[in-house]
Amino acid sequence: QVQLVESGGGLVQAGGSLRLSCATSGSIFSRNVMGWYRQAPGKQRELVARIISGGSTDYADFAKGRFTISRDNPKNTVALQMNSLKPEDTAVYYCNMVFTVLAREYEYWGQGTQVTVSP
């Protein structure tokens, strides 16, 4: 059973920074995509950024230039460095992992970590 555990959320003032981390455990296929999603109250969950095992990244428009996703392949961990935070970044942030084995897709989510940005 694969488990993802986020850490690093909290309360920060606008303009500040936070670094989220996601640790994994269990049987994980080495070729995978890890990412961060967020969900604000009353809104749908949305992609923030994702990174494949080879290092290619994909960012939502709101994250470009402010957020940086990185990963440690041997440890299967992923981090999200968030700078210049805005009140509208307030949300629960979720770690996500997807991999395919023998044509079957496996997807896992963490429990989420709250990020609150005050004006």
Account of the protein in words:
- The chain is mainly β and 119 residues long.
- It is 0% helix and 58% strand.
- Strands 2, 4, 5, 6, 9, 10 and 11 form a seven-stranded mixed sheet that branches. The chain has a four-stranded antiparallel sheet with strand order 1-3-8-7, with no helix packed on it.
Record the SSE blueprint.
Elements: E1 3-7, E2 10-13, E3 18-25, E4 33-39, E5 46-52, E6 57-59, E7 67-72, E8 77-82, E9 91-101, E10 104-109, E11 113-118
Parallel strand pairs: 2-11
Antiparallel strand pairs: 1-3, 3-8, 4-5, 4-9, 5-6, 7-8, 9-10, 9-11
Low-confidence stretches: none
- Termini, distance in Å? 40 Å
Order of helices and strands: EEEEEEEEEEE
Q: Estimate the mean pLDDT confidence.
A: 95
Structural class: mainly beta
Q: Determine the strand fraction and express it as a percent band.
A: over 45%
Continuous helix count: 0
Largest sheet: 7 strands, mixed
* Number of DSSP strand runs: 11
What is the gyration radius calculated from CA atoms? 14 Å
Q: Helicity, in percent?
A: under 10%
Overall morphology: elongated
The gist of it:
0% of the residues lie in helices and 58% in strands.
Entry keywords:
mainly beta; 119 residues; 11 strands; 0% helix; seven-stranded mixed beta sheet; four-stranded antiparallel beta sheet
